[in-house]
Amino acid sequence: MNQRRTALLSLTALLAAGLTTIPAGPAGADEVERVRNGTFETGIDSWWTSGVTAGPAGGGLCADVPGGTANPWDAAVGQNDLTLAKGESYRFSFHATGAPEGNSVRAVVGLQVAPYDAYYEVTPQVSVSGNTYTYTFTSPVDTPQGQVAFQLGGGAAPWRFCLDDVSLLGGVPPEEYKPDTGPRVRVNQVAYLPGGPKNATVVTEATEPLPWQLKNAAGAVVASGRSVPRGVDPSSGQNVHSIDFGAYRRAGSGLTLVADGETSRPFDIGAAAYERLRLDAAKFYYTQRSGVEIRDDLRPGYGRAAGHVDVAPNQGDGAVPCRPGVCDYTLDVTGGWYDAGDHGKYVVNGGISVWQLLSTYERARLARTGHAERLGDGTLNIPESGNKVPDILDEARWELEFLLRMQVPDGEPLAGMVHHKIHDEQWTGLPLMPAADPQKRELHPPSTAATLNLAATAAQAARLYRPYDRQFAATALAAARKAWTAALAHPDVLASDSDGIGGGTYADPDVSDEFYWAAAELYLTTGGREFRDHVLNSPVHTADVFGPVSFDWARTAVPARLDLATVPNPLPSRDRVRRSVREAADRYLATLKAHPYGMPYAPEGQRYDWGSTHQILNNATVLATAYDLTGSAAYRDGALQSMDYVLGRNALNLSYVTGYGEVSAQNQHSRWYAHQLDPRLPHPPAGSLAGGPNSGIQDPLAQSKLQGCTGQFCYIDDIQSWSTNELTINWNSALTWMASFAADQG
User: Fold this and answer.
1) What is the mean pLDDT of residues 48-72?
2) Of 66, 239, 90, 102, nearest to 167 (Cα)?
3) Which DSSP category does 173 fall into?
């Protein structure tokens, strides 16, 4: 439910100042051919150029591209005013050559005016991946203002690009998107714990039980049995069987499961992978940091310049003004984490992410199976390592200090409230390194939700940082109290659901759960009667807050309930709080057992939510908490089995965590982990969680590929699919929490 848009800016918008337009020629005779003069028979009529020296050559167009440009769009050729029809399939083709080898061309079919959507994009390496390129896509809109553009910049050395036979042919047969799902035996491709549950799913037409064999790396059969038919799984439309091989408890690597003539992808039995994932999921945050250079010695291959530190071309975050009419001051809001694949920073999403990282550490301190030392100083290899503070607290503090800077200063209207977000004035394109972002930065209005997020997380921080930095703990608690008072005075200042230009809206019409959460954290830290009474008198306290989705940035009652249940406190009726967690866990466990793919998530009508992978993990967090409260192995096993889906036991046979599993998501939507668009940039780092199936398929690429998709199939591993494949700080916080829990069970 991030409800974000991260549209690509067209070259028309980005390069308006330097654009050279060549007069258009007559339209072609072919009614379905949209490109004019695509064979360059009349020279380069109808084509514009920017940042290059171009002209007719060899029957086509050739452009001399300068070296040393920063961005792909700094040098380009293109054509505007192309008509596209919604639902019509197009064949986009062209012939291109270039030298030196290795230069990539960013070929885009998109919208030439705001909001500058890209409907299709490819990045062939000319003279390396061939010379003739043909692609088919479906337009998601009707528009007479389509654009074809070839972006050529971003290279260090000058080169020559030649283009011919450009075509955008409408009315062609659509090309059906069929994901490669590999073997029909679906397993957790990473690891099962020796003493934990071990389940798999077989996609098959068989209706009777099937024999299965578990084989070790040498191919020897080490266990066998028969599958359990489950019928048609409504979340995928597949007929499936389940396999339970939990009786096999010997550690090993390279195991496979064989059934119905198919061999699964390999996996391990052991805890080592979860120990790695516990740390990799948390290490994700260092490379998301804003306002600081990312050191290549700490993250080889991911080093980059500091972003948004008032160094050209950045507008910078050192003195950010409000949007017009919001305030007449500026704030230093440097630091923090970039929220997702864009350069925005959002308090409500930062809040739930900080809570979950701090909760990961607090659970490790309090739970019977917790190992807090495995999140301790030196474990994450960050600049603060070696300061005698647990690294996970150091990382969370980077965001906390940004949240504190977002508070409205004393003496100003709405003092003590917190600005909802800060991001660019307009959406930027991909790829774009943080240090190269030229957009004006703006503070958006304060909101009650953001204010209560600060109150909750700063109060939580006060109790956890006190043993390490009493002054910071006191500062955090004072800010939490001030935010609480301000929220009480302004209980209904809501973020606008139309404030989505340049960044996500994160609008939330109901903040009763945020009041409950903030009161709970302040009570747990201070024991104050005011906060206790608010908790006890809140209608949220006795409501059933555990829905099909237990919690996320917009649903924060469950974090309050979990902390009230697990953090020592004398709250009256605390037994009822704990009972509500167990009852919710029972429902999620029943959902998991009924699900052929073994997960505690079954949205109504199989309408998968935005960020469904993290929502599955958050439901698993409730199961894990019930285990911590009761010691019941059923809850532990349910939580562990939930990890199987994220790591490969799913309809797509794909691990949604980069670098984990034989086949994993690699092309999450990001402006700087953008290898798919620019081979010089990296894929997301190991341990990055993709958002996963989203039935809404809000982005143009998903709409062109996934129309009519069922549940689990509403996903595509493509950088342009921001609605199914983005990475975000709150999705990785869910992975961090659950990976740490799983590692503790090893």
Assistant:
1) 92
2) 90
3) P
Query: Are 374 and 743 within 8 A, CB to CB?
Result: yes
Determine whether 669 is an active site residue.
Answer: yes
Single out the catalytic residue among 395, 669, 678, 744. Answer: 669
User: Which two three-digit tokens encode residue 273?
Assistant: 């992978």
What would you measure as the largest C-alpha separation in the chain, in angstroms? 84
Q: Which residues pair with 303 in a beta bridge?
A: none
Is 717 among the residues known to form the active site?
A: yes
Is residue 342 among the annotated active site residues? yes
User: Across the strands, what pairs with 95?
Assistant: 132, 164
Confidence tier at 308 by pLDDT (50, 70, 90): very high
Instruction: Give, in degrees to the nearest 5, the angle at Cα 407 between 404 and 409.
Output: 120
Residues facing residue 215 across a β-bridge: 221, 256
Tell me the CA distances in angstroms from 78 to 57, 126, 464, 669, one per residue in order.
16, 17, 56, 25
With vertex at residue 352, the alpha carbon angle to CA 296 and CA 482, rounded to the nearest 5 degrees, is 110
CB 476 within 8 A of CB 375: no
Of 169, 116, 498, 433, nearest in space to 303 by CA: 433
Catalytic residue, from 514, 678, 717, 718: name it. Answer: 717
The 10s digit of each residue's pLDDT in 128-138 is 555 788 888 88
What's the rounded mean pLDDT across residues 533-558? 98
At 520 the pLDDT is 98
- Which amino acid type is present at position 82? L
In this structure, are residues 552 and 489 in contact, taking their beta carbons and an 8 Å threshold? no
Name the pTM for this structure.
Answer: 0.84
Question: Whole-angstrom Cα distance, residue 364 to residue 384?
Answer: 21
The whole-angstrom separation of Cα 620 and Cα 550 is 9
Percent of residues, the chain, with pLDDT higher than 70: 94
| Strand extents, DSSP E, 425-551 | 441-443, 446-447
Three-class HEC string of 1-25: CCCCCCCCCCHHHHCHHHCECCCCC
* Cα distances (angstroms) measured from residue 609 to each of 12, 498, 605: 34, 20, 11
CB count within 10 Å of CB 507 equals 18
Residue 9 has pLDDT above 60, yes or no: no
For every residue of 375-442, DSSP letters joined together read GSTTSS--TTTTSSS-HHHHHHHHHHHHHHHTBPPTTSTTTT-EE-EEEESS---SS--GGG--SPEE
The rounded Cα 78 to chain-centroid distance in angstroms is: 32
Instruction: Give whole-number Cα distances, 563 to 571, 588, 629, 636, in Å.
Output: 12, 19, 11, 18
pLDDT for 144 equals 95
Which residues on adjacent β-strands are paired with residue 269? 192, 252
d(CA 445, CA 451): 11
Active site residue 275: no
Closest CA to 40 of 19, 30, 20, 25: 25
- Of the candidates 339, 342, 391, 637, the residue annotated as catalytic is 342
Place of tokens 């258009």: 24
Which tokens is 475 given? Answer: 């500062």
State the sign of the Cα–Cα–Cα–Cα dihedral 129, 132, 136, 137.
positive
Burial 431-445 (b: 16+ CB within 10 A, else e): bbbbbbbebebbbbb
CB atoms within 10 A of CB 8: 26
* pLDDT tens digits along 420-441: 999 999 888 889 999 999 999 9
Closest CA to 350 of 531, 506, 517, 567: 506
Q: Quick check: 327 and 432 in contact, CB under 8 A?
A: no
